[in-house]
Known about the structure:
By secondary structure, this protein is mainly α.
Amino acid sequence: xxxxxxxxxxxxxxxxxxxxxxxxxxxxxxxxxxxxxxxxxxxxxxxxxxxxxxxxxxxxxxxxxxxxxxxxxxxxxxxxxxxxxxxxxxxxxxxxxxxxxxxxxxxxxxxxxxxxxxxxxxxxxxxxxxxxxxxxxxxxxxxxxxxxxxxxxxxxxxxxxxxxxxxxxxxxxxxxxxxxxxxxxxxx
Length: 188
């Protein structure tokens, strides 16, 4: 019998499976939003060029969709360890040291994400109170922020999960690739 191709299916802990499933769904949704942006831009530019009739509010729509897509991709990127990694100086360092550095980086990223989520929440409340709308049609700007906050909460949980993996790897002198089920993340 062949092994499952989905790394989340090989995870033994329920938290990891759940986080990976949610992150996968969000990433697919982010991809669909990106396709929608491409379609809107294509139709609007074609309409502007051929018929002198672009899609009203196309810049605002694409901006909102882009923001939502970026937030949707963040948890997946964190769980797949797809964030920027500069390992030039640590390439030959022991695995324990690399895992400790990754844990420290995740800790700093966790602090930044918590602060960002906190400010995003209060920014949403302020936008809701000001009733700010897109000029081309009646769409309140704050309507997409709850989705963004949800994505940030999933990202925070993903950071906590990878932080725990890095701490375990630092204590056991294993790389995250060796310690994670399926071995699909981490450094080589």
